[in-house]
Amino acid sequence: MSESSKAVHDTEYVGIGHYTNQFFRRASRNGLEFTLMVVGQSGLGKSTFIDSLFQTDLISSSAKYIPSAEKIRERKFNIFEDNTKLQLTIVDTPAFGDMINNCYCWRPIVDYIDKMNSNYLKDESDINRKTKIPDNRVHLCLYFISPNGHGMKELDIKFLSKLHDKVNVIPVIAKADTLTTIELERLKSAILFELDVNDINVYHFPSYADKGSYQTKSNNPIPYAVICSNLTVTKEGGKKIRAREYPWGVVEIENLTHNDFQLLKDDILKKHLIDLIEDTANVHYENYRFTQLGKLLTNHTEVPNDIMTHVQRELDRHEEKFKSKTASMERIFNDKVREREQLLELKKGKVEEFELKYELILAEKMKFLQNLSLEVNKMRLAYNLRGEGLSDKSSMG
Fold first, then answer.
1. Which branch of life, at top level (predicted)?
2. Are 36 and 143 within one domain?
3. Do 37 and 93 meet the contact criterion of CB atoms below 8 Å apart?
4. In this structure, are 213 and 340 located in the same domain?
5. Helix, strand, coil shares, percent, the chain, to 5
6. Do 229 and 112 have their domain in common?
7. Least CB-packed of 52, 105, 269, 277 within 10 Å?
8. Which pLDDT band, with edges at 50, 70 and 90, does 19 fall under?
9. What is the pLDDT of residue 9?
10. Contact predicate 169/157, CB 8 Å
């Protein structure tokens, strides 16, 4: 059968043109869940970056703090803008790379990412599956690189090599205002070279996916060089901006001629937030899911023959659980019925006792009435006899 394409005329309205409106209404109704992880050594301005990214003091606010796995901190926020809700989770890694021995400092982060994927897989595989599964998977990891040096450290390469196939990871050069333009370009080139040599696949936003178009700064943003600040400066005209003040001038963090902060912010929040969520679900999570199901199939202690045997065991287990609950409910019901029957029997005995008591009283009353009636009859008979005697005497006289 041959396939053909046909343009739909204005009069042949189908309705797929409202797809974007449907997606917008769904996002407005359900909101979006997004988890952002920031990793890097202390003093690189990760907290300031988050505050600058969302234009508020999120980290220093009184938002809910949730302790989780060791060396991992979670902070959850609800952000509302133009009738759209974003449930944001910020995952911080305090003291990362600050130990004397940093050989395995990446392990808690990998374990955390795997744990979030495992929780989602468990909810997804549950028989009583929820309509909307909470998504706590890590959608983006920003790795902050120190500007002091001629490239990445061994720790940076080790971390990125362990995480690049588990999460969308983007390298970020912190405190870019400490470098001259030439130094920054050299550092970027060195980082790109080391990423290529070590086969580290960092995340490329769809708009930059064509590597052949990496010609200018706007087309070659990775690694992003950012400057962050919590200081607000008032420009001429009264406009307030976040900036860093120096004796020789002011560095505007949202000025593309000064750094890549605004470019990174737009790429994450304005242009590709949905792409990050979908790439996490369709690439990294699916890879994790495939690996776990493969382990399940090869683990003969859990699945002796095939996946159907495992499914049958799960069904049998749930059936036994259902039978146990049914028997328990029947036992409770029978106990309640027995208690009610005993209560009714007790009440019935009291009623019968009451009836017997009043039957005896009634019998005594009836006997009393009968005796009283006999007495009345005797008195009436005696009265009548006395009356007849008096009448006889009077007739004789």
1. Eukaryota
2. yes
3. yes
4. no
5. 50, 15, 35
6. yes
7. 269
8. low
9. 56
10. no
Within 10 angstroms of residue 243's Cβ, the number of other Cβ atoms is 21
Q: Is residue 246 part of a domain?
A: yes
Q: Please give the order of strands across the beta sheet that includes 240-246.
A: 232-234, 240-246, 249-252
With residue 294 as reference, give the H or E element that holds it: helix 285-298
pLDDT at 301 over 60: no
List, as one string, the DSSP characters of 332-379. HHHHHHHHHHHHHHHHHHHHHHHHHHHHHHHHHHHHHHHHHHHHHHHH
Residues 40 and 109 in one domain: yes
What mean pLDDT value characterizes the chain? Answer: 82
Q: What are phi and psi of 242, to 5 degrees?
A: -90, 130
The pTM of the full predicted model, rounded to 2 decimals, is 0.67
The C-alpha atoms of residue 164 and residue 290 are separated, in whole angstroms, by 17
Tell me the two tokens of residue 326.
Answer: 């049914």
Mean pLDDT along residues 35-44: 91
My answer on whether 50 and 147 are in the same domain is: yes
**Cα angle: 172, vertex 177, 180; to 5 degrees:** 105
- For 167-182, what is each residue's pLDDT tens digit? 999 999 999 989 999 9
Q: How many domains does the chain have?
A: 2
| pLDDT score of 111 more than 90 | yes
Q: Is residue 35 helix, strand or coil?
A: strand
pLDDT of the residue at 140:
95
